Amino acid sequence: MFYKGIIFDLDGVICFTDKYHYEAWKETADEIDVYFDEVINNRLRGISRMASLEIILERSQKEYTKEEKEKIAYEKNERYKKLLHQMSPEDLSAEVKDTLDTLRQRGCKLAIGSSSRNTKLILERLGLKGYFDAVSDGTNITRSKPDPEVFLKAAEFLGYAPSDCLVVEDALAGIDAAVAGGFDSAGVGEAATHGKVTYPLKTFSDLLKIERDS
Ligand code: BG6
Ligand code: MG
Fold first, then answer.
1. How big is the CA angle at 111 (ends 83 and 212), to the nearest 5 degrees?
2. What residue's CA is closest to ligand 1, atom 16?
């Protein structure tokens, strides 16, 4: 029996917002005079906004109060949201859309499991508002990946047990979260190199080739 539910991470799986995150963090880090580059940006994949800021501030000489950190994160997000307005349905690749449609035709329920608090805005920009059967994101969790909360909530919203769901991820922290929640996982990009990923994929449409061992 194939998976009843498939839970997709958003950034790096369904769409590519990395460059916008980078640009918004870079401007923010420059403003507070903290060194930031693409290598540091890679460490931010899959983790929450505040956890990302903590990583960026590892390079800072200054100690920031909680309120100051919240202000910096807010400003980064304002920049990021402005950049997201450049996104349109054309940013959704035919490969991703056709694969999602085919999985749905095969009877799978599809969900989003993303740490992002901007999930709904991104889905709207991509023309996917209302497409998924369930959306679990940064607005309904208290602990970010590698904690499994976001995926457990997605499975709950779909009405399935973790053992009936497959998690699709691009981040190492996302595969850690899937493992911790008792989910099988499919990894694209860096996540395909994780030692515990169930199905390392070369490309997104390889999801259609998965045959579940039971
Ligand atoms: C994840 C991204 O999807 O969302 C992370 O991979 C990001 O890089 C996280 O930090 C939180 O995003 P947002 O949109 O709530 O700032
Ligand atoms: Mg991701």
1. 125
2. 49
- In the numeric block, the tokens 């449409």 are attached to 205
Omega of the bond leading into 148 within 30 degrees of 0 (cis): no
Q: Which residues surround ligand 2, an ion (CB under 5 A)?
A: 9, 11-12, 46, 170-171
Active site residue 11: yes
Instruction: Give the span between the Cα atoms of 9 and 116, in whole angstroms.
Output: 9
Count of C-beta atoms within a 10 Å radius of residue 87: 19
Number of C-alpha atoms within 13 angstroms, CB side, residue 118?
22
Looking at residue 214, what is its pLDDT?
59
Q: How many CB atoms lie within 10 A of CB 119?
A: 22
pLDDT for the residue numbered 195: 98
25 token code pair: 């963090």
213 classed as catalytic: no
Distance CA 118, CA 96 (A): 20
Q: What is the pLDDT of residue 212?
A: 81
**Gap between the Cα atoms of 115 and 103, Å rounded:** 23
- 48 CB within 6 A, ligand 1: yes
Give the mean pLDDT per block of 10 residues along the chain (214 residues).
Answer: 94 96 98 96 93 97 96 98 97 98 97 97 98 97 96 98 98 97 97 98 97 74
Residues near 190 by beta carbon (within 8 Å), at least 6 away in sequence: 42, 45, 170, 171, 172
Task: Give the β-pairing of 165-169 and 5-8.
Answer: parallel
